[in-house]
């Protein structure tokens, strides 16, 4: 595995080391994250393991746990990182699955709590990896309260619930990405919710077993990709100008697939836009070169705004993974913290995660709560089935309490193999360590900087 001392050594210092200078780390807020329910209308009884979708009993108990954490942790908001229905479902079942999960998310939000949604690769009304808008209809039409014809976003309109005036830019929400102020306007924290399904090889055309009914042309897909990257550049520049910090959230992470070893994002399509109006040499160079992969452009962009991006959250793998991101120039592009799934389809326990933000909006806490197969058929989350990020990743013999999560990793002084060993013990969220495949290599998420994008 490549060693990344430059990345880890230059991350934020632990606030505990600054206490003597009168700079204590005061908690700012907490928020709840869930992902990958994959609810199956035919899953009458949940069986742990591969190819088993989430049953009603498991989803009901997950909602109960989420509401309890929402209240006990005083969560300021909830973020759902995508993938609602079971895999490869017929249209009728798919819509019922959307209805059930959307209703559950609304129950988690309750009457006042804010909940933000971003799309996964299953969240099209069409098929897996099909376009989120599915020919003009987003999946929220499965919710009887959805009304896109109203003048402003009402409190019950997706992709947010009870969020009111927190949306900053919803001009691309029909394609699955937007920005918002999750702690309310004028609080200095911006949420940028991306649709990184667009960046995968199968987006807009369908997965290998089923083509999209409303398939997009390659030209349309590349236009959408370019538009989203340019929008992201504008959002990050705005946040930096106003002194805001950013939570960057997405479903499919960059880097390699820990199970199969291939790229998570496509290298068959590069940046080919010309709509960016800012004075940005990255986009000018990428457009002129014609061989800048999406990942290379994205990581160069996030590296440029690394001090503005306080957190990067991902899902999709169903596992509790971690990715250290660098650009082709070796610059820090961030740390991607995985949010495990409710489904157990990838051999994991069902889980959800609570994050804490310090006064500077850095992540200073991450606690993973999970249920085990031993609670079936009740599927209860017990109070002792959880673990914390600092306790998991703090080097032996050191005290990481009060540290930002980045500083906990920096304490390893570039020893990424040891970080990978710690990650492999929690990857399946309480079901034992993982070995083999490419999970340890996936920790080291740098773009392919030597090979031009593949041409079709």
TrEMBL record:
Q: Which UniProt keywords apply?
A: Glycoprotein, Hydrolase, Signal
Q: Which GO terms describe its molecular function?
A: hydrolase activity
Signal sequence residues: 1-27
Query: What's the protein name?
Result: Calcineurin-like phosphoesterase
The organism is Antarctobacter heliothermus
